[in-house]
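Supplementary notes for students who missed Thursday's class. We covered one full example, reproduced here. Read the sequence, then the structure, then the short commentary at the end.
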Amino acid sequence: MMRAMARCITLLLASSLACSTTPATDGGSTGGSSGDGTTTGGSDDASTATATAPSATTAGDSTAAAEGTDATPTTGGSSGTSEASSSGATATVPADVLVLTPWKLTLPIARDEPDRPLEILQPELAGYAIEPWFHLDQAGTAVVFRANAGGVTTNNSGYPRSELREMSDDGLDPASWSTSVGEHTMTITQAITHLPEVKPHVVAGQIHDAEDDVVMIRLEGSHLFVEGGGEELGDLATDYALGTDFTVQLRASEGVIEIYYEDLTTPTVTVERDVDGCYFKAGVYTQSNPDQGDAPDAHGEVVIRDLVVSHT
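Structure (token representation):
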């Protein structure tokens, strides 16, 4: 009898251990964590918000079609920084190469009104590209800016542009600073790659104030120089060859603007300008139009590899 009781106790203990080590199989819950630590799907899927990239405007399609170009905009998921290129990821839009957070873009194509140029602001600019006006080069390491002579112009100019205008507050408000308060610097590494045939003039970088240009980096044929107020202020190169990369820096402080060309330690041109309401511009500002004799599809083009702005 004692042997029979011991056998019963052994069977009871074995049954208890088996119950304590068997996982629950309650089918009432479809969410939660699986045994390997991964989260399983559940009813939350129906209420999960999906983030989408901002839609790029399709304005300008008819203009480009008339000129035989593809003007379909591209959108991407870029945050507006150069993280993609620096991390080795493949760049897909200009904001993957250049930090575009403090900029808006003006293009030589119309939006809603035929005489009003298309402007792209943040956050749309962070994922925007449109051929042939604003897009990555073939290598995906630089940004191409193009403006055709027959393009749409701003109210105060007769010339077209594919150009960035400096903004503040992460692209929400127009930048406005004084050459006599603080130090303001823009450094561009770029190449001017194409000029209109009849009037081969473009601007590739400038400081503008509330009224007019203050200084501009200008190319006429092979003559690269600094202009301001319609006057030549100093040479940068007299034999510039299209497609040649160069670095230029515009620095303003204490009422003086210094322009550095290649050598960023010694200014090439220095001018006194005590002005307010200033902001930087970068890209291409084509200095021709059909009235100058150029065909509507003649164009200026600038390729920017690096663009850095600082204010202290």
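Commentary. Residues 1-70, 77-85 have pLDDT under 50 and may be disordered. The CA atoms of residues 43 and 108 lie 49 Å apart. If anything here is unclear, bring it to office hours.
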